[in-house]
Design a protein that fits this description.
This protein is mainly α. The chain is built from 3 helices and no strands. The chain starts with 12 loop residues before the first helix and ends with a helix.
Length: 72
């Protein structure tokens, strides 16, 4: 048996029920851990948005030297 950890950012209980139904339909054993994240949700959202922006080709690539100059 292989273990896979998945984090789902659900918006309501219906989404949780849908995930449970999907897993059950495939006869996959699962457990739900409702641990709260140590991260601020607004911070997490900014990071996720930034990752999406990068995938969409937005942003700018900097060399290490260019980055150091910006930080001074």
């Amino acid at each position: 048996m292989e273990t896979l950890n998945i984090t789902a950012y659900t918006e309501d209980h219906n989404q949780i029920n849908a995930i449970k139904a999907f897993m059950e339909s495939l006869n996959i054993k699962f457990k739900i851990d409702n641990k709260e994240s140590n991260y601020n949700p607004e911070f997490v959202e900014k990071i996720l948005n930034s990752k999406q922006d990068h995938k969409d080709g937005k942003g700018e690539v900097l060399t290490l030297d260019e980055f150091k100059k910006l930080c001074k």
